[in-house]
Amino acid sequence: MLTPMVAGGVVFPGLFLLSKNTLQRLPQLRWEEADAVIVSARLVSSVQAIMASTAGYIVSTSCKHIIDDQHWLSSAYTQFAVPYFIYDIYAMFLCHWHKHQVKGHGGDDGAARAPGSMWAIARGYLHKEFLMVLHHAAMVLVCFPLSVVWRQGKGDFFLGCMLMAEVSTPFVCLGKILIQYKQQHTLLHKVNGALMLLSFLCCRVLLFPYLYWAYGRHAGLPLLAVPLAIPAHVNLGAALLLAPQLYWFFLICRGACRLFWPRSRPPPACQAQD
């Protein structure tokens, strides 16, 4: 178990530092540190998402029996990914701190180093990213122990499908980068927004009904009978995982309304949300 975790602890922070230093030092680029940090953090998140979804596809397609079949990659990648969630909490804080500086709250007059200012930035970060920080902490403190210990080698198929939820992450990261650099009205941003909406709906929201359907097919049960046939704590866990996905999907839909139907001519559905 220790080897994949150590590898993850080296790969993700190492990739972040490599990307940041490259963007800052290449003569053709010479990016400011704030830009390099923000883009590098998004890049690492995208790389992790591609790795996770690839591992998930390999695992889920290799397990013909959705309960008993096992694949070594399921436990190996789960252990490898744990350091990413710890690293990403810090990387998100760095992005927040640099955005705070760029907006003029820091400056060169030493205000950013004034007593209590870092705590104020940290509180702002936790307020803005509370749900994401909570999600990352739960992945490390709850989901990881459950996947390694509680499963006892069962259900690799379901774990593989859960890993494929990361398919939407590269589109989310690219969208944030385009917004950061005020490219909201470009064709690339609109195409990426449509792909983000579709991938998030399919791989994060509809994933849970699919998992219930897959178990129902395995057990010979109709979809609506599955929640009553499985333990209550499984339903509770699925509901807790689904809830933030529904919230984020709502935010994505609201953003899509604002992108494709500007406020000057919003459709009735968007008017109700505003």
TrEMBL record:
TM annotation in the entry: 130-151, 157-179, 191-212, 232-253
Topology with respect to the bilayer: Multi-pass membrane protein
Species of the source: Pan paniscus
Record protein name field: TLC domain containing 3B
Example GO molecular function: sphingosine N-acyltransferase activity
Subcellular location: Membrane
Main localisation: membrane
A Pfam family matched in the record: TRAM_LAG1_CLN8
GO cellular component, one term: membrane
Record-level GO BP terms: ceramide biosynthetic process; lipid homeostasis; negative regulation of fat cell differentiation
